[in-house]
Queue: 2 jobs
Job 1
Amino acid sequence: MCGLIGALSRRNVAPLLLDGLKRLEYRGYDSAGLACIDGAGISVHRRVGKVAELERLLQRRMPDSAIGIGHTRWATHGEPEERNAHPQVSRDTIAVVHNGIIENYEGLRKMLEVMGYAFSSDTDTEVVAHLVHYHYAGLSDLFAAVRTAVNQLVGAYAIAVMAADRPDCLVVARQGNPLAVGIGDGEQFVASDAVALLPFTDRFVFLEDGDVACLAADGLSVLDADGQAVERPLQQLDVAGAGADKGPYRHYMLKEIHEQPDALADTIRGCVEHGMLLPAALGFTDRELLQRVQAVHIVACGTSHHAGEVARYWLESVARLPCSVDLASEYRYRDPVVPPGCLFVTLSQSGETADTLAALRYAAKAGYLGTLAICNCPASSLVRESAMHLLTRAGPEIGVASTKAFTTQLLSVLLLTLLLAHRHRHDAQAGRSQLEQLRQVSARVEDVLNLSRRIEALAVPLVNHASALFLGRGPLYPIAREGALKLKEISYIHAEAYASGELKHGPLALVDDQMPVIALAPSNLLLDKQRSNLREVQARKGQLFVFSDRDSGIEAGPGVRLVEMPKVDALSAPIVYAVALQLLAYHAAVLRGSDVDKPRNLAKSVTVE
Ligand code: M6R
């Protein structure tokens, strides 16, 4: 969702900005642009559509400039049109790129119009460009002008600003949206995601909310929200494998699905030593706090929320801790009650999801025992702002549809559950046997990957339908919901998931011979109940697509298509069955010809509320 980049160097930055924009494509966008300063002043280049369109435009005449800013825009204010793409420019003097939403832009726009500024776009960003222009005209100091302008803004933003007569400095500011400054050799960069800058540097300064910074040849100056000069720590990022290509795979999503056995094994390796869980690796550097946890409250969005819903089953049944799970966008508006000794847990792949961050900020003041972020991005705002963190070890995930980040989240919350369940020493042996079982999970996921062709065959009849139902029970109910979300996201087939027991309370009305019903039915304590629900579907001639193991006794037949899954223990089942549904969604999307890695209207990192 919107990507921003800027560069100041001795070499020509235009190709670098273009390269960076390509690395930001995974975030989702509908137009792209860049601006540079050359002998003739600010030159702006914008295109609706992919970065490739912008590249084609630039190939005709590549700018030659030592300073520039670029952007991929995901439309919020105004349609995806060239005039609404960024950079936005004020009177040929100030160019701005912006992520986020300026909530008071309408009032500012009216004020600026009265002052004589003419608007050429529908964006909130153009307001920022004119506002900076106005203050720059009065102050003749770009750094001061941006500081004064951002003081008038309400909302969330990360901006990069340059002035036609200052080709030696780039001014940036953040409030609620991430900004990473990359420090190179005699050159400086800025981006909304460090991934965009990895070819140029591995040294980063992450700005904090309220910071305004000036990048110049002689160094970086940062002022905090109070206008005080501050030094933000320089961090070296481990970039091994980051931004790697698709290898032999047709899509990033398929590559990431196949990376799961290794990612899961890495997750266990990172949290277990000599058969024992490592509390510090699971976030508990404070062992005393671990003993005080009496309840858990999980907050997340989308796929990460589904991981939280599975976690609730585990935390209650295995660790015997009361657990509630909320959508981040709902949580802080419902005035939640905080039980005594309650740990607040966020789950997020990116660590930059605006709703989840807002929930964390609310929770930090709400009287929880502590805040724990379970996150895949070590340098993210969520990790930096939480008291404790547990890093999932999925590695960079590029496909918009989350896959390996989800299964490593599941495994991480499962390990956390075992830690909480066995935190008293006399239980240690019980924990060991469960951990031993979990070591098999990578091998079982590998078995599912080997079923890819069979699952592809199942996707063939599915893709002709407009709608599908997913059914599951217990911890496999949230997995059914995740399967439905995956199918919706990338194949655009409408899908809904239900706890199987709910079928007869409403959705059964939808079932006829045209309705595919995808059911998760491993042999477990709930199998008999699940089989009864499947019979209810069969009695209405619904088309069953069943994922089950040999011990269940479920057989293929008229109206029943079957994928025989490996036999797995109850704790591993959600992880293993999730992978099968990822493959189903993937194959359905490929068969329908959709843009698997960048589905329409979606963004990898959702940085607006
Ligand atoms: O980065 P996060 O895990 O916080 O993102 C939350 C959701 O936006 C994300 O899981 C989304 O639902 C994915 N597109 C799912 O595939």
Note: Residues 573-591 form the longest helix (19 residues).
Job 2
Amino acid sequence: MEKTMDKIVNLCKSRGFVFPGSEIYNGFANTWDFGPVGVELKNNIKRAWWKRFVQEEPNSYGVDAAILMNPKVWEASGHVQSFGDPKMDCKKCKQRFRADTLIEAHSKGSVAAEAMSNEELEKYISDHHICCPHCGNFDWTPIRKFNPMFKTSRGSLEAEADVVYLRPETCQGEYVNFLNVQRTTRAKVPFSIAQIGKSFRNEITPGNFLFRTIEFEQMEFQTFCRDENSMEIYEKNKAAALQFAKDVGLKEENLRFHDHDKLAHYAKAACDIQYKFPIGWEELNGIHHRGTWDLSRHQEFSGKSMQYLDPVSNEKFVPTVIEYSIGADRLVLAVLCEAYDEENLENGETRVVMHLHPALAPYKVAVLPLQKNLSEKAREVYAHLSKHFMCDYDEAGSIGKRYRRQDEIGTPLCVTIDFDTLEDNTVTVRDRDSMQQIRLQIDKLVQYVEDKIKF
Ligand code: GAP
């Protein structure tokens, strides 16, 4: 079975996971809307992440910071001055590309172009005669830096002084609240601040569905620690990030670490976890040693101390930061790609089935009356189960077609109501993956489902 991005996109659209953004206006490039089952999947992924990295971590605290921050934040972070994609236009066909992406594609990922200067990028493209992927010509404009932050303005006058940016990453909300969180929780280093929220980037390269969008959610946490412990924490966070990726259902053989060769001057280490998407191995998330860079910069630009006071030794210092960052939408895409399957059945038919982890599945149970005149009892069962779980209810079409529909949205269990149900209060429970069926008392259903969907 060939798993292509087109198949995933089509299933997402036809089953209500994801729709093209502003579709009735012919769409809006690199924007996507989550539909009824997509929003459930994404919320479940965010919940699983929060459970793992905030709820189950004794020294981890959540925040939900403002998207619009004082513009000085982006001066301190370096985004205003230097965070720009090196872009070049093909003079023949007028298509625009990122120079580093062109090199990475040409070298099949063997050249770390991200760390190259503009001069190095231009020289490499010229030396290797890298042509326009769209029209095949070699006629490039010089590279220009492109600031991917979206600008808006505060107040009624659109003067430069009123410029405000939509945040391109959530982590700055964690840095600026470092001491607020530390003081109110009385946390001692090492401790982490976590956040899930929207980020915005004026991306110019092809999006590849949810992989790269201009508006996306990030799930990030920063661990603040003593520098002497930082590498141990970096390794621990790396392992925890990989474990989480496996626990949401990504297969080990589709995951790998990619350590960065070139590091920022303040960093001791940096790596990505890559996932084997249908478009190839690509970054799923990053784990970065950031030294004291971010807090020191905020200290410098705000004029406020960002030092931690050790309550035992009375020592004051700016902690080192280890960052973990993953895009919720990109993880949704990886989970969808992993779960997609086409199975050949004994009767010669093929079924499309999403083997989603039951804890992530949009609906945990679908309630299906065998015939319409059983709907009263079926609605009773639905009302009972939906107090505990997201459930679907479907009474239209043959039972076989209804099972297929639930398979395609990854519902782990289907509960069928038949005439015996009226007599003995039992139902048929059908398992999505094995397609095995068992008979169960209605009052045992909630516990049965609970056990199935543990994360
Ligand atoms: N605070 C660090 C940071 O933002 P990043 O590597 O630029 O680092 C972190 O982004 C993660 O956010 C990526 O690994 C990816 O999962 C996700 N991400 C970044 N840009 C994205 C985009 N345009 N669309 C979807 N996800 C994106």
Note: The mean pLDDT is 94.
